[in-house]
Amino acid sequence: MFLRQDTRPVRVGNLTIGGKNEVIIQSMCTTKTADVEATVAEILRLEEAGCQVVRVTVNNEEAAAAIKEIKKRIHIPLVADIHFNYKLALMAIENGIDKVRINPGNIGKREKVEAVVKACKEKGIPIRIGVNAGSLENHLIEKYGYPTPEAMVESALYHIGILEELDFHDIIVSLKASDVPMAIAAYTKAAEVIPYPLHLGITEAGTLFSGTVKSAAGLGALLSLGIGSTMRISLSADPVEEIKVGRELLKSFGLISDAATLVSCPTCGRLDIDLFSIANEVEEYISKIKVPIKVSVLGCAVNGPGEAREADIGIAGARGEGLLFRYGEMIRKVPEATMVEELKKEIDNIVKVYEET
Ligand code: SF4
């Protein structure tokens, strides 16, 4: 079994995916790539949200040409998503792309594959093989009858074989399906036989709500097994939401070191404060924090202090006031009206301590 830490480390721009490195969060632009202004603006918003690698579609020459200018204005590795057209891949590589997502078996003649591999080797660029349950090769559909995890892994091995035959090993592999159990099975089988980093994703997962649940179910199961070196949450929503969900998912498994976590209670009849709005405000506030602190927002002082003990800083509501806790010890009472501001001040102090040590 090639767990995350056992996979071959693969360089993508200034990052390394696989090996002992943290799980990298990716997203994909929704803009027309040739529209440089819109694409750069979207990438900068993604960067601010914590996106570490971003993919753009390269479906025509204008898109491939735009890569040069986009690269100058962003700060994270850029990936070209290419289907079939090796000339677009060569253009993207020439224009400074950091990774190419293309399936070598779909490029066509061997000379074309060789040209792409040669260009990638010269520039030190990896190739992501993207297997999708919905677009498996005809010979695999004929063999298996319909998409199966086995067929998906066989497809990945087929494309990997083409690259390995050309002595190319800077490979990342994804095996996406919109069916969660199928994706889990495909990735689990792939981890048994593929030594390259796996890029996780549930494709066409759905809207912000349903796609988040499906992605968390599928990717959570895989991450908990130690599978997956990079991932994308695919949502029919603003891609910034994909990053927020991805970071939250990694936090759940302690797989991210530059994010703060919120603990908040579901509330019950003991509640005497407006906890939902407080929790949302605090969540928004800590989303920009880049240190791994835990903040708790609890509805009452009955269970609050006990539940807040594991948090670095927290607040528990009481009638008309809040009790501020730091590392499980109550530090002071604050009026409800200033509770959130007081909590933010304490959060800032803790962040400062983290940053100084
Ligand atoms: Fe209810 Fe208090 Fe627990 Fe929140 S912390 S769920 S208000 S008992």
Task: Tell me about this structure.
This protein is α/β, with parallel strands linked by helices. The protein has 2 domains: 249 residues, Dihydropteroate synthase-like (TIM Barrel, Alpha-Beta Barrel), CATH 3.20.20.20; 96 residues, 2-Layer Sandwich (Sulfite Reductase Hemoprotein, domain 1). It has an 8-stranded parallel beta sheet with strand order 8-7-6-5-4-3-10-9. The protein has a 5-stranded mixed beta sheet with strand order 11-12-13-14-15. A two-stranded antiparallel sheet has the order 1-2. The longest helix has 18 residues. The two termini are 38 Å apart. The site of iron/sulfur cluster has 12 residues, from loops. Iron/sulfur cluster binds next to loops.
